[in-house]
Amino acid sequence: KYSDKDIFGSEPALEAFITGCYSTYAYQGAFHSGAHGEWFAPGSAIVHWGLAGTPLSDAQKRWVDLLSLAQFSRNPNNLSVYKGLYTAIYTCNKLIDGLKSSPVNERYKRQIEAEARYLRAMSYFHIVRRWGNAPVHRDVTASIEHTNGKREDFWKIYDCIIKDLDYAEANGRTYDEQFSIAGTGTGRVCKDAATALKSLVYLTI
């Protein structure tokens, strides 16, 4: 078993944890393979799913859902993205909470928190564009009642997104700093990414 000291007690440990926060975007099947983008595609005769052999996977029903912009949890592509985004949010919240007691240098902790807040903001941005009103978790969920909370108004979610991106923009690493620590080809975000995503958020609003 890992203790809090193992997980939050050193800079390499924090780098490993923040890498895990990216897992939804890197490995989560439906998000990475195309179901994420398909929901934003216009329904037409040439935008269609061909698989129809498993329960709750009727291709015609999924196409009708797309046409009506009705994204129900029973749709298998929709559910996997929903679960993946909230898993990413939980992981980010766990890291942000653990940083409070970490003995690591304060500037370093702010940089890691900035990256976690960026990923949390991006997750909520995908959520609010799909479902509008949705549950919001800003801390670690400790009970099933907390997990199954009420849906917040969409504008409150946008407010949370912008606050997280403001923090990421102010405290995140520069491109050169991120490059020197994380190395090339990692896909890790810097403060410029927060500025860019905030621009897209405002444009969407």
Question: What do you see in this structure?
Answer:
By secondary structure, this protein is mainly alpha-helical. Helices cover 65% and strands 0% of the residues. It contains 12 helices and no strands. The chain is globular, with a radius of gyration of 18 Å. The model has no long low-confidence stretch (mean pLDDT 82).
**What count of helical segments does DSSP give?**
12
Instruction: Tell me roughly what share of residues is in helical segments.
Output: 55-70%
The largest β sheet comes out as:
none
Strand content: under 5%
- Average pLDDT rating: 82
Unreliable segments of 5+ consecutive residues: none
- Report the radius of gyration as a whole number of Å: 18 Å
SS elements, strand count: 0
Task: Compute the separation of the termini in Å.
Answer: 44 Å
SSE topology sketch:
Blueprint lengths: L3 H5 L2 H11 L1 H5 L1 H5 L1 H4 L20 H9 L8 H24 L6 H26 L12 H4 L6 H18 L3 H8 L8 H14 L1
Helix pairs in contact: 2-7, 2-8, 7-8, 8-10, 8-12, 10-12
